[in-house]
Specification:
single chain; 72 residues; two-stranded antiparallel sheet; mainly beta
């Protein structure tokens, strides 16, 4: 059996990473709207990642350490 050696027509599309759907605050596991302090997006290859910054604390998180005042 011999196969056809015709090459398929090359169709290239520009595949840019898109931000995807908007942030859905009602999705399960999302923090409350009033606790979100910021959202950062970054791209790695073709994937887009979102980091949601909140002011919520979990029971296993430690309280932030107080900074010492500098002596003059």
């Amino acid at each position: 059996m011999s196969r056809s050696k015709r090459k398929k027509a090359a169709t290239r599309r520009s595949k840019k990473a898109t931000a995807g759907p908007a942030l859905d605050p009602l999705r399960a596991g999302m923090p409350a709207l009033d606790s979100i302090s910021g959202v950062d997006e970054f791209r790695k290859g073709k994937k887009v990642f979102r980091i949601i910054h909140t002011n919520e604390m979990d029971s296993y998180d430690r309280a932030p350490l107080k900074t010492r005042k500098k002596k003059r």
